[in-house]
Amino acid sequence: MASTLTKIISVLDPRTGDPVTQVPITEPADCDDAVRRAAAAAGSWARTPPAERAAAIASAADDVRAAIDELAELNERETGKLRDDARGGVEAGVGTLLQYAQLGPLHRGQALQGGWSATDLMVPQPRGVVAVITPWNGPVAVAAGLLGAALVTGNTVVHKPSERCPQTGRRFAELLAARLPEGVLEIVNGDGTVGERLAAAEHVDVVAHVGSSATGREIARACAERGAKALLENGGNDALIVDADVDPAWAAAQTALGAFANAGQICVSVERVYVAQSVADVFLNALIDEAIAWADRIGPLVDERHREHVHAHVEEAIREGAHLLVGGEPQ
């Protein structure tokens, strides 16, 4: 993976503002080379027996488990995620890799009813090179799902972790790559410009992206122009409904979990709640208690850019008639 890298990604610890990570940005020519290496390795990896591919993923999962403290610390420093939550993300990633290692060898073809004198076979084939672009709020758990699925089914991968936690994402991918043949898993660093180049690359057959809806639309457009497949999981706008026949205290606990986990920085976080009038008062009182209990379990927002984005939402709401009850200024 040797390359000439010049520009630098700098990441600050959101808890202190201290610099914690400096990672070189992959130059366009080196990004193209990574795609070419993955394409060159695609044929032999596709022909590797499924059980061997699965064994490699299982071994990588063991390596990730052994590095849980290292990965959790990197994630905590780059994104401000609480240590227990960061460890939980690594554990979830290990479980996902092991799940795909178990399912991979079971991914087989079918014999179909054809003519009386013929047998028709339908056999799944790897698509080729998959560009995997992952978010900062799940650099191990989310990446494990996309990388594990693509690799165990015989595809090669070029992976770009988020520029907000480049070291966490890169270290995780390095642990996987160490168990794989050369070229099967390539790693590039960078911001949206690197992702754009991957999405438009001639030899990339699939782009798998978890992240913002705006980025997802750009990826879908780039893939449509050249006939590549896009797998997108993008931002949500999620509501929670509390019916009259639900225990309001339990519903309040679930609401707090959905709203406050990872400081609300999850694509399925609870953003608004519709409550049946008959249980509204009990629910709100219980939710206040839950919010107090969560006070010391909420970390910072990931960086200044994101804090400004959230604050802009608050200011817009006030301009449109919302009443500010508490706070209103970033801390």
From TrEMBL:
It comes from the Bacteria. The keyword Oxidoreductase applies. Keywords: Oxidoreductase. It holds the Pfam family Aldedh. One of its GO terms (molecular function) is succinate-semialdehyde dehydrogenase (NADP+) activity. SUPFAM superfamilies: ALDH-like. Residues 6-329 form the Aldehyde dehydrogenase domain. It is an enzyme of class 1 (oxidoreductase). It catalyses: succinate semialdehyde + NADP(+) + H2O = succinate + NADPH + 2 H(+). Its EC number is 1.2.1.79. PANTHER family: ALDEHYDE DEHYDROGENASE-RELATED. This is Putative succinate-semialdehyde dehydrogenase [NADP(+)] 2.
